[in-house]
Input
Amino acid sequence: KNEVEQSPQNLTAQEGEFITINCSYSVGISALHWLQQHPGGGIVSLFMLSSGKKKHGRLIATINIQEKHSSLHITASHPRDSAVYICAVRFTLETSGSRLTFGEGTQLTVNP
Amino acid sequence: NAGVTQTPKFQVLKTGQSMTLQCAQDMNHEYMSWYRQDPGMGLRLIHYSVGAGITDQGEVPNGYNVSRSTTEDFPLRLLSAAPSQTSVYFCASSYGYSGNYGYTFGSGTRLTVV
Output
């Protein structure tokens, strides 16, 4: 079964801390997405990766294809980073259009 | 750019009622999709479309219909609402359907079936 697992499920940090959220998947993928869902419910696409590393502001996403693992890092965390972070992948052998398989999400709370 | 516009934001239905959730995008995206989000579960694909006139079932299609008569619009119809369809629904679009392009999500519809 094609699966996506995120860890941790919940994460509480103090403002300024370096944060890492992990995503592991079971079989080969063609793309991995990191999404952010704010308390109001809206979902925003942060990164799409197929290899290597991407950076946007304080956010860094990395992927290791051989180890089937991706990490999302937040440097100098801030209370406004509090959200659910979701990992989603497109498995290489997925034949049904652009179906993404989603992790359950990591609830991040950053306290001032 | 409006992006993906989803309406309504909230809806309460009685069991057996029907309704349509609207989704429109103005980015000329080929791929559009509907997901439901339930507590403790990841987003699950209901139906998707890779272009006007083409739709297909996702992971949890039962009780839902879709059509794609134009590139811009992708409505989701609940035929006879059931309490199990209480959920938050998201519409999303993408430039291509390879999964290798970024996704744009609508703001969501919180549906309660009583």
Notes: Chain B touches chain A through 30 residues (CB under 8 Å). The longest strand of chain B covers residues 44-51. The mean pLDDT of chain B is 92. Residues 7 and 114 of chain B are 20 Å apart (CA to CA).
